Amino acid sequence: MAASFLLAMTRVPLLLAFGVLQAGAVTDAPPGSSPEWGEASIRSSRVEKPGAAALPPKPQWQADPLNLFVVVEAGDHHVSLVDGDRFEVLHRFASRSALHGEPRFTPDGRFVYFGTRDGWVTKYDLWNLTPVAEVRAGLDMRNLALSGDGHWVMAANYLPRTLLLFDADLNLVRSYPVATPDGKTASRVAAVYDATPRHSFIAALKDIPELWEISYDPKAEPIFDGLVHDYKMGEGLAKPGFLGVRRTRLDEPLEDFFFDQSYRHAVGSTRSQGIKPIAAQVVNLDVRRRIVEFPLPGMPHLGSGITFTWRDTLVLAAPNLKDGALAVVDTKTWKVLKTIATPGPGFFIGSHENSAYAWVDSVLSPSARDSLTIIDKRTLAVVAQVREPGRTLSHIEFTRDGRYALASLGEMDGALIVYDARTFKEVKRLPMSKPVGKYNVGNRIARSEGSSR
Would you place residue 225 in the very low, low, confident or very high pLDDT band (cuts 50, 70, 90)? Predict the structure, then answer.
C-alpha cells in the first residue's frame, strides 16, 4: 500500500527537483517572469491515504519508539528507521528525491514530516510504516517547522516568496506573501523555526531586514504594526495576534539564527557586505529589536549551534563555514570566550545533555572532511579525533540517553557508524547509501520543547 501510494503521488504533473520546470507543467507564466504556485495548485496537489484515520494508534514493531533514528539516505533516495538500542534497521522505504532540512516529529513521536527542496511535504506514520498525506507547498522550499503542539506545519519558500501554514493533515490554512508592509519588496524566506515556549513560528527573511513571528496561540495579544500614534493612517488599529504577522525590523537580514534557551532571543548572523565583517546579531523577540551586535571570525553557522553550561555561564558553540574554527560565546555578555581550532571548516556540531563532549565535523574542508573533532565541554579543549581516511564523515546524533554517538559516512557505499560516546571507540556500523542525516525521535522532541542541545 505504501509503495502504491508513493507511485500515485508521483503521477501528478510537477516540477523537477530543485524547482526546475518541466515545459508547461505547472504555469502559464510568460517568459522571463517568475513561475507561480498558488493556493489552487497547492490544494489540488494534496493526496491522502485512504483509511489513514483508522490506523492503529500504537507501534506495529518492537522497539522503543522514542529511541528510534530516522536516517535519510541521499544516495538512493531512501529513509531507514533504526532501533537505537540494538542498532538494527527496522524498516527502509523509498522517499522523494532531494529531501532537505531536518524532519519534524509530532510530540508523541508517531508522525514525521519530510520536506524536499522542490517543495513537497510528506507526513509519514512511523508507527504503521506508511505515508498518510502529501502536499506540494512550493517550487523551491527552504525548510519546515512543526508547532510544539503538533497542530500546525509551516513551510518556508524561496519560490514563490511565501510562508505557507497547514494543519496537521497538510490542508492549506493560510498563505502569507512575504513582503514589506507596502507590498513593494518581496523576499525569499531564509528559514522558519518553531519556538514552542512562545507558541509561535519565527521566520528570517533573506531579502528584507525583518524577523517575522506568527503566533499559533489563540490568546495571542493584538498586533500593532507601524507607528501606533499615527491613527490617521490606520497604523494604530490592532490586527489579530492569532496567526498574524508580528514584524521585528532589523538593520540587515539574518542568514540563519538560533534560539537561546529562554527563547526570548534569536541569535543570527549577517553576511559580509563590502568591507564590513560578518557579525552576529542578538534580537530580543519581546521588545522586537536588536540588542547586541558582535563580530565573529570567518562565516559562523549559528543555525546549527549548541548551548551548554560552562563554569557559571551558558555558552553557545557554533561551527564555521569558512575557517577551521569553533566559536564559543558567553550568552550573558555575548562575547567570544574562546575560538577552538578544528582541522577545517564544518557544518554540524552535536552534543547531548548527558555527555561531557561535543563533536564537530570539518565536512567543508577538501582535506579534512574525513574527521570528527571531539571537544570536552568542561575544559573547552580538543581531546580526541575520529577519522575515516579519504572519506566524508559528518553529522553526529546521540541515542536518547546520550550513551552512543552516531555519525554519517557520507559516501555511496557509506554507513551509519556507532561510537561509544565516552571512549570514542567504534561499536558498530550499518551499511547505507550516502546517509546525510540521522535524527533521534526522543532527542528531537525534547529539543523542540526548548531543552539544550
Answer: confident
Q: What is the largest CA-CA distance in the chain?
A: 69
CATH 2.30.170.40 applies to domain 2-345: no
Order the strands of the 306-310 sheet from edge to edge.
306-310, 313-318, 325-330, 335-341
3-class secondary-structure state, position 233: helix
Q: Is 298 left (phi over 0), alpha (psi -120 to 50) or beta?
A: left
Question: What residue segments make up the domains of the chain, in order of their start?
Answer: 2-345
Range of weakest confidence among 78-92, 119-133, 214-228, 338-352 = 214-228
Torsion of CA 394, 400, 402, 405, to 10 degrees: -20
Q: Is the distance from CB of 238 to CB of 223 less than 8 angstroms?
A: yes
The pTM is what?
A: 0.90
State how far the Cα of 309 lies from the Cα of 382, in Å rounded to an integer. Answer: 17
Contact between 352 and 443 under an 8 Å Cβ cutoff? The reply is yes
- Please give the Cα distance from 102 to 403 (Å, whole number): 22
- The end-to-end CA distance of the chain, in Å, is 37
C-alpha span between 419 and 433 (Å, rounded): 19
Helix (H, G, I), strand (E, B) or coil at 251: coil
Summarize pLDDT for 30-40 with one digit per residue, the tens: 444 567 899 99
Please state, in angstroms and rounded to a whole number, the distance separating the CA atoms of residues 450 and 453. 9
CA distance 13 to 61: 35
